[in-house]
Specification:
Elements: H1 2-33, H2 43-51, E1 60-61, E2 64-68, H3 108-111, H4 117-123, H5 130-155, H6 166-170, H7 175-180, H8 186-203, H9 208-226, H10 230-246, H11 255-273, H12 277-284, H13 296-311, H14 332-349, H15 355-379, H16 393-403, H17 416-442, H18 466-485, H19 493-517
Antiparallel strand pairs: 1-2
Helix pairs in contact: 1-5, 1-18, 2-4, 5-8, 5-9, 8-9, 8-10, 8-16, 9-11, 10-11, 10-15, 13-15, 14-17, 15-16, 17-18
Length: 518
């Protein structure tokens, strides 16, 4: 009878799950449409690296092996960058024949600074037109994130399911949203970091096909993160190490998991050591030459006071919270609402603490302090130069996840009223950020008004309007936010109560077996 009730509850969840998948994909596709090609951070470098991946992809310059000629449509620097009042309409006149453009040395072919997997995958999606190629890559990355996170939620045991979605959802506004469906490798770095540690952590609690699925997702996460950015490979190594230390009492009984984890460590280490970013991390910093070099300890003290700008910059807080080429500022209400929702959720999740959780939260917290301080110190630079908030976003996602851990059921710390307020705050922040992002490129921020199509200077050649894109993306995200932030999260109170009873029964049975054995 109990199994029949459980099957019925699971059947009720299936339509909801499909709604969440559609809402997630629609949200990310809306953000994919929200900006013009070349708008993501350092897109001149990343787009040239995508188009010129592999020998023979772009014409070389005789006698200059370091130079290549990307297609003319791949801009050396977008005409709208650095001035938020200039719309993407300045790009009109780009041809569609993809003729070779000016020679450039700005690309991954010279230094191999970035691991090649992201560029190799995006290179496969190139068509004969810049706009269609860019949109195809963005939609692919948005759908990939939706599928990977959805698969993680499905594979996680019921008590841990919120770990699959909430950490990346509640840290995504506004900066994460601008990156997930973009041509920037940070999209994979953040997504992979969000998958690796919960998949490995949960694999210790399940058997059979569910464990196989989690280990497969673990490998996918390792490849996405470490195959996109060198620093993400470090975060992957840290996440794997964190899980092994939290589960150290169970390692001898789960040797297969240890072997898979060791393989993940080896893959991440290989990507890191073979990328040019390894040199940045261990020696040279960002290659910045500050006008006045201060002693290391003075730089560290000055930067320590400004670290919140880097920690919460991805949430729209502080003077480094702008998107794109750091030329798209968001209204203060975005940062206030997103940061408040995140802080209340995380602090509420700290009501329950136990040794493994304290260790995990402390470890990630220390990493969020030391990593930027060391990187800036190596360059002799202060906060605001070189190191950007998006570099810490993977760690912020991990910190949020380990903060949610529970001995029993991982569930939302909110009451129903608090969940309504949090959903409203996060939904408002996302909607306002999406409107600002679209406005930035269709007319420039010197134009106001709710209607994004009035006076429009740029938009995609698609049947959906800019305003409709904003409305669809806002509604889809609001549905996601409520579904995952409501009391008991995606599980529902009835299922949480059932899991609690099952766990209590299991504890009682274990105690009886121990008594009998004694």
């Amino acid at each position: 009878m109990q199994n029949e009730r459980t099957r019925t509850k699971r059947a009720r969840l299936r339509p909801h799950a499909w709604i969440m998948v559609v809402a997630g994909a629609l949200t990310l596709i809306s953000w994919a449409l929200a900006s013009a090609p070349g708008s993501a951070p350092d897109d001149n470098y990343h787009m040239a690296s995508i188009w010129c991946f592999g020998d023979g992809s772009c014409p070389t310059v005789p006698g200059e092996p370091s130079l290549r000629r990307p297609p003319a449509e791949v801009p050396a620097a977008p005409c709208f960058s650095q001035d938020s009042d200039i719309s993407a309409g300045c790009q009109e006149g780009l041809s569609d024949d993809m003729l070779p453009g000016k020679a450039t040395g700005v690309g991954n072919w010279n230094t191999d600074s970035y691991p090649p997997l992201f560029y190799a995958t995006m290179h496969l999606l190139i068509t004969g037109d810049l706009y269609s190629s860019t949109l195809l890559m963005r939609v692919f990355n948005g759908v990939l994130l939706t599928v990977v996170i959805g698969s993680l939620i499905a594979a996680l045991p019921r008590r841990l399911k919120p770990l699959g979605a909430v950490p990346i959802l509640i840290t995504s506004v506004p900066l994460g949203m601008t990156l997930f469906a973009s041509t920037n490798p940070s999209s994979w770095a953040i997504a992979g970091s969000a998958v690796v540690w919960p998949a490995l952590y949960a694999a210790f609690e399940v058997r059979g096909r569910r464990r196989v699925a989690l280990l497969a997702l673990f490998v996918v996460g390792v490849l996405m993160a470490s195959g996109s950015r060198g620093d993400a490979a470090l975060f992957t190594i840290g996440g794997i190490g964190l899980v092994l230390l939290m589960r150290w009492k169970e390692l001898l009984a789960n040797k297969t998991l240890v072997v898979v984890a060791a393989a993940g460590l080896a893959i991440s280490a290989w990507f890191f050591l073979t990328s040019g970013q390894a040199t940045v991390v261990v020696s040279g910093g960002f290659g910045i030459e500050p006008k006045k070099v201060l002693p290391w300890h003075q730089i560290a003290v000055a930067n320590l006071q400004q670290l919140p700008v880097l920690w919460a910059g991805s949430l729209g807080f502080g003077f480094m919270a702008s998107a794109g080429w750091l030329d798209t500022p968001f209204p203060a209400l975005v940062g206030f609402s997103a940061t408040t929702a995140w802080a209340v959720y995380v602090f509420g999740s700290w009501r329950e603490m136990f040794p493994a959780k304290v260790f995990a939260v402390s470890g990630v917290g220390v990493a969020m302090i030391l990593y930027p301080l060391v990187m800036l110190g190596l360059s002799g630079a202060k906060v605001g130069t070189g190191f950007q908030p998006r570099y810490l976003l993977p760690l912020l996602v991990i910190l949020t996840g380990v903060s949610m851990l529970s001995r029993r059921v991982v569930a939302s710390p909110f009451t129903r009223f608090q969940a309504v307020l949090a959903t409203a705050a996060l939904g408002l922040a996302q909607s306002l950020a999406l409107h600002t992002q679209i406005r930035r490129y269709v007319t420039g921020l010197d134009v106001g008004g709710i209607n994004l199509d009035r006076g429009r200077e740029w938009w995609w050649d698609l049947p959906i309007s800019a305003t409709a894109t904003w409305v669809a993306g806002s509604l889809a995200f609001a549905i996601l936010a409520w579904y995952f932030l409501r009391p008991s999260g995606l599980l529902g109170s009835a299922i949480v109560d059932e899991i609690e009873r099952e766990m209590e029964h299991e504890i009682e049975e274990t105690g009886r077996r121990e008594v009998v054995t004694t």
